[in-house]
Design a protein that fits this description.
alpha/beta
Length: 74
């Protein structure tokens, strides 16, 4: 049995910019990916992205984002 594979969304950032975050994430799920690694949430919010990932059954395997440390605002 093949191991589940996740896609780093940064690698499709230009497609996301052209087609929209939701549409690209739906296509990624449709291709059979088991998870994603977000690199920001262009055109959406983290809460909306979480709902989309949950609805599509995508795991968030990691995140390509700065850590909210100290007085930084995420």
């Amino acid at each position: 049995m093949a191991a589940p594979v996740a896609l780093q969304l940064y690698s499709v950032r230009e497609v996301i910019a052209a087609c929209g975050f939701d549409e690209v994430v739906r296509q990624v799920a449709g291709m059979g990916y088991a998870g994603v690694e977000p690199a920001g949430f262009p055109g959406t919010t983290p809460a909306q992205a979480k709902k989309l990932f949950d609805d599509l059954g995508l795991a968030v395997t990691s995140a390509h984002l700065p850590l909210p440390l100290g007085d930084q605002k995420a």
